[in-house]
Design brief:
Blueprint: E1 17-22, E2 33-39, H1 48-54, E3 57-63, E4 68-73, H2 78-82, E5 88-93, E6 96-100, H3 124-128, H4 131-135, E7 145-150, E8 170-171, H5 188-197, E9 213-218, E10 221-224, E11 232-237, H6 238-250, E12 255-258, E13 260-265, E14 268-270, E15 275-277, H7 278-297, E16 301-305, E17 319-322, E18 329-336, E19 350-351, E20 364-367, H8 373-376, E21 381-384, E22 387-390, E23 397-400, E24 408-411, H9 414-431, H10 438-448, H11 468-503, H12 523-531
Length: 532
C-alpha cells in the first residue's frame, strides 16, 4: 500500500486524523478494484446485481439509505460501463485512506501500583466551557446517545465502560467485525470518547457529559508500520466512514462525533502512483454529503474536527477538508492555554497554532490544547506524584488511552476539540428531555457560545467557543418564555370564556322592533370572537 507524500502535517502534537488519498495503480488493472456507485436521488438502481454482473463485477455491500453500492471488478472499463445506466449518478474509485496521528501519545501518565488516579484537577478544558456550572443545574447528558466514529476504543477502560453500549458498537472494517481495539494497538477513539462522556467515578477524568451513552463506531483499522512513531498506521476507506455515519443515525444517535478528516484536491491528484480525477473528488465529497445529510434528517447533530494544518481554508480553494466541510456538519477549531500549570489564571482561549481556520469552515471553537509553551520554555518541568512532567503537557487535553500505552495520556488537536462540542450538545439535548432537532441544538450552542476574536462569527472561533452553562441558561429562558406564552394564551381563553358568560346573560330587550335572542344562543359566536 502506497502513502501519499504531498499532504503536509502539522508536526507539533496533534490528534486529528489526517487523510492522504490512495487509489490502486493503473498496472493493477487485472486485479479486482473497488468502486463507489452513487444512484440518482439517493436511491440504488433497480436490478443492480444483474447490471453489475453483466459488466464483470460484484457487489461487496450497499448502503441503501444514501444510494451507495460498493462494487468490485477487474474490468478496466467497469466504471464507464456502469455509468451508462440511467439510474446511476456516478461511479468513482473507492479511495484508500491512510491516517496519521502525529504526536498522539506524547507521554503516558504514571500510575503507581494500587493508586487509582484522579486527574479532574488538571482538566482546565472543563473550566473553559463552564462544564461544572452546567452540571450544577442537573445537566449530565443522561438519556443522550453519542456515537464516536473512529478506531476501536477500549471497552474495559474504567472511564469508558460505565457509559459504553457494547451491544450497539459496531465495526465497518471489512473482514474484522470487532468494534473495539485489539490488544497492543493504539486507541485514538478512547481519548475522544473520554473527553465527550467519561464517567464521573472519581478515577481518571470526567467527560463533558458524564452520564451520556457512548457507542463506538469503528471506521478504520491499524496495521504495523515501522516508519510511524507509534509503530502502526491507521487505514480506512471513504465508504467505511459513510456507512458508519448512516449506521450511527439509524441507531438513533443524538450526536455523532467525528475526530478524523483530511484534504481532497478539488482538481484531482496524481503523483505517478496514486491518481483520482476532478470528477472523482467531486463524487467522493458528494458521498460524504449524502451520509451527513441523512444523519441530520434522522435527527443527529454531526460534529467534526476542523483539522490540524494551520491552514486558512477561505484562501485554499483547491481543496476540500472532509468531513468538516460536508453538508450539515458543525466543524470545530481548537483553543488552549499556555503555561497553565504555572499560572492557573492564564487565558484558556488562545487560538491553537495548529488549528485550521476559515469563516466557511469553522462553526465553533472548543478546547483542543495548545503546545506552544514547549517552544517558550522547553526545559520547564512540573512534578506530578514524584514524576517529572514537561510543563507544556498540562496545556494539552488529558484523556483515556489503552494498554500497553498506559491508561491516560495528554494530547492536543481539533480531534480533542470536537468531542467537547459533542458533550455540550449532549447536555443541551438531555436538558430538553432527550429529544431535540439538530437545528435547535445548533441554535442553543450559538446563543451560549462566548464570542471571541472579532465580533460575531469569525474565521478562527466561528460563532464562538462553546459554553455549556450559557447554552443551558439560554435554553431555560426559552423554555420559560414558551411556558409564559402558554399561560398567556390560557388566560386569554379563560378571559374569553368569562366575557362570553357575561354577555350571554338575558338582557331586557328594549327595542320592540328587534327580535330578542334567546338566552345562551350567542355563546359560541362570542367565544369565537374572543379567541380571535
Amino acid at each position: 500500500m502506497h502513502k501519499l507524500s504531498s499532504l503536509k502535517l502539522y508536526r507539533l502534537i496533534g490528534l486529528v486524523l489526517v487523510l492522504s488519498m490512495l487509489a490502486p495503480t493503473a498496472s493493477a488493472q487485472q486485479t479486482a478494484r473497488s468502486y463507489l456507485l452513487l444512484g440518482k436521488s439517493d436511491k440504488l438502481p433497480n436490478n443492480l446485481q444483474q447490471a453489475v454482473a453483466e459488466r464483470g463485477g460484484s457487489i461487496a455491500y450497499t448502503v441503501p439509505e444514501i444510494g451507495l453500492a460498493v462494487l468490485l471488478s477487474a474490468n478496466p472499463d467497469f466504471s464507464a460501463q456502469m455509468e451508462t445506466l440511467a439510474e446511476v449518478e456516478s461511479v468513482a474509485p473507492d479511495i484508500q485512506v491512510n491516517y496519521d496521528l502525529p504526536g498522539f501519545q506524547p507521554q503516558g501518565l504514571p500510575q503507581p501500583s494500587g493508586h487509582p488516579l484522579d486527574f479532574a484537577a488538571y482538566q482546565w478544558n472543563l473550566d473553559a466551557i463552564d462544564a461544572p456550572e452546567a452540571w450544577a443545574t442537573g445537566a449530565r447528558g443522561a438519556g443522550v446517545r453519542i456515537a464516536i466514529l473512529d478506531d476501536g476504543m477500549d471497552p474495559s477502560h474504567v472511564d469508558l465502560a460505565p457509559n459504553l453500549n457494547v451491544g450497539l458498537s459496531k465495526s465497518f472494517v471489512p473482514g474484522d467485525s470487532n468494534p473495539f481495539a485489539a490488544p497492543g494497538f493504539p486507541s485514538h477513539s478512547s481519548h475522544v470518547a473520554g473527553i465527550a462522556a467519561a464517567a464521573d467515578n472519581g478515577i481518571g477524568i470526567i467527560g463533558v457529559a458524564p452520564q451520556a451513552e457512548i457507542v463506538g463506531v469503528r471506521v478504520l483499522t491499524w496495521l504495523p508500520d515501522a516508519s510511524s512513531p507509534l509503530g502502526y498506521v491507521a487505514e480506512g476507506k471513504f465508504a467505511w466512514i459513510a456507512a458508519g455515519i448512516v449506521y450511527a443515525a439509524n441507531i438513533d444517535s443524538d450526536v455523532i462525533s467525528i475526530s478524523l478528516g483530511g484534504w481532497l484536491d478539488k482538481d484531482g491528484f496524481c503523483d505517478g502512483e496514486t491518481c483520482y480525477s476532478k470528477k472523482d473528488a467531486k463524487e467522493l465529497k458528494k458521498l460524504l454529503d449524502r451520509a451527513t445529510r441523512y444523519a441530520y434528517k434522522q435527527g443527529a447533530v454531526v460534529i467534526a474536527a476542523a483539522g490540524n494544518d494551520a491552514t486558512d481554508t477561505d484562501h485554499n480553494g483547491k481543496n476540500y477538508f472532509l468531513p468538516a466541510e460536508s453538508d450539515k456538519v458543525l466543524a470545530v477549531s481548537a483553543t488552549g492555554p499556555s503555561g497553565w500549570i504555572l499560572d492557573p489564571t492564564a487565558d484558556l482561549d488562545t487560538f491553537a497554532p495548529y488549528s485550521n481556520y476559515g469563516k466557511k469552515l469553522v462553526d465553533f471553537a472548543a478546547p483542543g490544547g495548545n503546545p506552544s509553551y514547549a517552544l517558550q520554555d522547553p526545559a520547564c518541568i512540573y512534578p506530578l506524584l514524584g514524576f517529572p512532567i514537561p510543563c507544556y503537557y498540562f496545556d494539552l487535553v488529558i484523556g483515556p488511552t489503552i494498554s500497553p500505552f498506559l491508561p491516560w495520556t495528554w494530547a492536543s488537536g481539533t480531534s480533542a476539540a470536537a468531542p467537547h462540542v459533542a458533550g455540550v450538545a449532549a447536555l443541551i439535548i438531555g436538558q430538553n428531555g432527550g429529544e431535540m432537532k439538530p437545528k435547535d441544538v445548533e441554535k442553543a450552542l450559538k446563543e451560549g457560545a462566548d464570542d471571541l476574536g472579532k465580533k460575531g462569527a469569525d474565521a478562527y472561533f466561528g460563532e464562538g467557543r462553546v459554553n455549556a452553562a450559557a447554552s443551558l441558561a439560554w435554553l431555560a429562558r426559552k423554555s420559560k418564555e414558551k411556558e409564559m406564552e402558554g399561560e398567556e394564551i390560557e388566560a386569554e381563553e379563560i378571559e374569553g370564556e368569562a366575557v362570553t358568560s357575561t354577555d350571554s346573560v338575558a338582557v331586557p330587550c328594549d327595542n320592540a322592533d328587534l327580535a330578542c335572542p334567546e338566552v345562551g344562543k350567542n355563546v359560541i359566536f362570542l367565544s369565537l370572537l374572543s379567541n380571535r
